[in-house]
Amino acid sequence: MAKINEDLLKERKKCSFNTAELTHLLDGGKDKTLERHSREHFFLDDPELRSKIPLEYLSHKEKYEEAVRKSCILFRKVQELQEAGKGGIENFREILGGQLGSAILKDGNPLTLHYVMFIPTITGQGDFEQQAEWMHKAWTCSIIGTYAQTELGHGTFIRGLETTATYDPKTEEFVLNSPTLTSYKWWPGGLGHSANFAIVVAQLYTQGKCHGIHPFIVQLRDEETHMPMKGIKIGEIGCKLGMNSTNNGYLGFENYRIPRTNLLMKNNKDGTYVKSPSSKLTYGTMIFVRVVLVQDCASYMKKAVTIATRYSAVRHQSEMKPNCPEPQIIDYVTQQYKLFPYIAMSFAFQYSASWLWDIYNNVTGELESGQLENLPELHALACCLKAVGTADCAAGVETLRLACGGHGYMTASNLPSTYGLATAMCTYEGENTVLLLQTARYLIKIWQNKKNIQNLPTVRYLDNALFNNRSYEKSVSWILSALQQVAAAKIDLANKHINDRVRQGKAYEDAWNETSIELVAAADAHCRTFLLDIFNLTVNNFQSISPELKAVLTDLLELYAVHTAIRMTGDLLRFTNTIGKDVEALQLWLEELLAKIRPNAIGIVDSFDIRDEVLGSALGAYDGNVYERLFAEAQKSPLNHEPVNKSFGLYLKPFLKNNL
Ligand SMILES: CCCCC/C=C\C/C=C\C/C=C\C/C=C\C/C=C\CCCCC(=O)SCCNC(=O)CCNC(=O)[C@H](O)C(C)(C)COP(=O)(O)OP(=O)(O)OC[C@H]1O[C@@H](n2cnc3c(N)ncnc32)[C@H](O)[C@@H]1OP(=O)(O)O
Ligand SMILES: Cc1cc2nc3c(=O)[nH]c(=O)nc-3n(C[C@H](O)[C@H](O)[C@H](O)COP(=O)(O)OP(=O)(O)OC[C@H]3O[C@@H](n4cnc5c(N)ncnc54)[C@H](O)[C@@H]3O)c2cc1C
User: Fold this and answer.
1) Domain Acyl-coenzyme A oxidase N-terminal, which positions (predicted)?
2) Is 145 near ligand 2, meaning CB less than 6 Å away?
3) pTM of this prediction?
4) For residues 98 and 299, is the Cβ–Cβ distance under 8 A?
5) Cβ–Cβ under 8 Å, residues 112 and 99
6) CA–CA dist 475, 142 (Å, integer)
7) Cα(233)–Cα(251) distance, integer angstroms
8) How many CB atoms lie within 10 A of CB 592?
């Protein structure tokens, strides 16, 4: 084992709590930690899953080929675990998103959509016979699928998709067509050259009538040769900001025929076209992915904040006092302000993600028995948590990269590619503004009709929050109550402005659009009250943890609360009876909390227990040997493999001669 950096050794001695206790708490128990370790060992210690050359130095094509190689091994290994009875959702969570997946495939996995959307859509939308026909092939990976919904012309407005599936009663087939350039499918992961099947979302036509969008199972490529099927035009969409191994593709159809039975029929039981009880049931896979993405936000944030916090303990810079040694940069309070709120935020997102996952499972259970009443609340919550979680995560990763100064800009820090993964989440699975407007739509409806509100756990606070008006106290409960009042006031005001505009003669839709900046802000505030509420409830409910750990979690909870409140200072002053002096008190409380967390900062990020291979960072490794690792990474540059590059003879030398 490498020698541990002296600063980190000192930091670890300062820690006031048992880091293993926090690790177990975060994992859900010691058994779960051991399970995770064994899973990490199974994947990360497999030499086949390592790359010989860092990805950054490969061409676009080579990156893809290496990603396919690794994805196949990953999937084979997941199947081995399933067969050995060691299966479970955690395996998928870890290798598809989260930490293991992004450690092994830093720039994305071209086969992810198979498990994340193809299989869930067959399960959620297929009838019994269809599941019997397709699930075995999909589970055993005899076929690899993707989810082809977005088109060149439409991603958000899916009712506007243009791909057509027209029923031909003579042959009992659907005929798929891409009538325009804008109707080409565009974006689906793995569609370019990896998948041989896809769920294709298309407008269903029977007897000249359009019945709206429906999902179909479509074969794209020959199962033996992988050549595109006749009538299928397919390829990759090209280079992106990040995720360059995910093989996002395009797809067009020319009179491409598929059997009638490939229309997913869970909601059309007798095989003839019957309108489903809610057209939104077709959107179920999107809810599922939004729910799991919130967990990924916590994972990426933990990873980035571990890297930046360890680096900040090792890095020394400037003089705080004349003639004193250069301090660790973690001792600058501005630096603490860049780091510690994101440590706290990781907890907030983990706890809310876990609540959301439970609510999701309850509601999907109800949907199976035809109960739809709780779907709108789930949809509204999943939309805002996905939007706020991914936005905070991307902004957090960028702040943490900046906190690492120049070295944070190196790919060897692993912060740039983590940002690439995080910022993509803000767009895919529903663009964030659009999702916040979905939440706002729900909140406005609730505001206009509060009859049933006490049965709706995520919004029942709105019943009386408008009049909270509590005077300032230094407590989380005061901040929560103030945030709830802000959310209620924002919803109330947006509702009033919509109504005013309608009264002035505007169409409701125009009034909505003119009020939409306020609506987005209302949804954002509502989401932040939920995040704080759940963090607070979770910490308060921990019964059997040590007082030392409880104290640390309380510090983090308070920091999250105060940080949120300070970010919303204008709203507090505007919508609650907070006054200038209270804001000053909040600021002092924030500074007090940063100082309290400072001695435990390294202990807390150590408790995240993220292996060096997962961090993938010269700046964040457990041993803190930052400079040695940066130097070693530089040696991997192909330019350093020869003393003189051929460009010298070709260009530089003649250029230098010409300038003589
Ligand atoms: C087999 C084992 C599997 C295990 C896997 C386990 C774990 C996986 C773990 C980890 C993986 C983690 C992460 C994954 C990692 C990497 C991911 C890599 C790649 C990501 C792939 C990304 C894929 C995509 O992007 S797919 C495309 C997604 N597209 C969108 O999201 C489009 C967004 N647009 C929409 O959703 C809609 O069009 C809209 C904006 C909502 C508008 O729709 P519209 O019909 O116009 O609706 P309208 O506004 O009129 O509202 C009508 C009404 O419906 C309600 N509504 C809307 N949507 C829903 C919904 N989804 N559910 C319920 N209800 C909905 C809406 O509120 C309105 O209601 P009302 O009239 O007001 O009552
Ligand atoms: C990395 C990545 C992977 C993806 N993978 C897949 C995949 O596997 N399968 C798939 O089908 N798709 C996939 N997508 C597509 C993705 O789901 C869409 O890009 C996303 O839903 C956003 O839609 P859009 O591109 O049409 O954006 P647009 O809707 O065109 O957004 C552009 C701007 O318009 C605004 N806007 C649009 N509508 C409204 C509105 N109603 N009100 C207010 N503002 C509005 C948005 O806020 C945004 O600012 C992927 C995308 C990315 C980036």
Assistant:
1) 18-144
2) no
3) 0.97
4) yes
5) no
6) 56
7) 5
8) 15
What lies within 8 Å, CB to CB, of 458 at 6+ separation is: 377, 380, 381, 530
Q: Is any ligand 1 atom within 6 A of the Cβ of residue 42?
A: no
> CA dihedral in degrees (556, 558, 559, 565; nearest 10)?
150
Domains of the chain by range and CATH? 37-109+286-427 (1.20.140.10), 144-285 (2.40.110.10), 627-660 (no CATH)
Is 150 assigned a ligand-binding role in the annotation? yes
Do residues 602 and 12 make contact, with C-beta atoms less than 8 angstroms apart? Answer: yes
- Name which of 101, 105, 103, 107 is nearest 60 in CA terms: 107
Which ligand is nearest the CA of 249, by number? Answer: 2
Q: HEC string of 493-510?
A: HHHHHHHHHHHCCCCHHH
Q: In what order do the strands lie in the sheet with 232-236?
A: 185-186, 249-253, 232-236
Region of 38 on the Ramachandran plot (φ > 0 left; ψ -120 to 50 alpha; else beta): alpha
Pocket of ligand 2 contains residue 113 by CB under 6 Å: yes
State mean pLDDT over 502-522: 98
Are 164 and 202 contacting, i.e. CB atoms less than 8 angstroms apart?
Answer: yes
Terminal CA-CA length for the chain? 54
Query: 515 near 502, Cβ under 8 Å?
Result: no
Q: DSSP assignment, residue 619?
A: T
Q: Whose CA is nearest to atom 39 of ligand 2?
A: 434
* Sheet strands (E) in 207-248: 209-219, 232-236
Query: Cα 3 to chain center, whole Å?
Result: 35
DSSP secondary structure of 74-119: HHHHHHHHHHTT---HHHHHHHHSHHHHHHHSTT--TTHHIIIIIH
Q: Is the pLDDT of residue 269 over 60?
A: no
- In this predicted structure, the answer to whether residue 660 has a pLDDT above a threshold of 90 is no
| pLDDT tens-digit map of 624-655 | 999 999 999 999 999 999 999 999 999 999 99
Residue 24 CA: distances (Å) to CA of 29, 35, 94, 172, 607: 5, 11, 17, 56, 9
Q: Which amino acid is at 52?
A: K
Give CA–CA dist 498/508, Å, rounded. 7
- What is the C-alpha radius of gyration for the chain, rounded to an integer number of angstroms? 27
Structure tokens at 481: 């109550």
The set of catalytic residues is 429
In angstroms, what is the span from residue 252 Cα to ligand 1's centroid?
A: 23
For residues 209 and 199, what is the distance between their CA atoms, to the nearest angstrom?
A: 22
Minimal CA–CA distance to 372: which of 292, 495, 287?
Answer: 287
Provide the token pair at 391: 């936005």
Axis crossing angle, helix 415-427 with helix 284-314, rounded to the nearest 10: 150
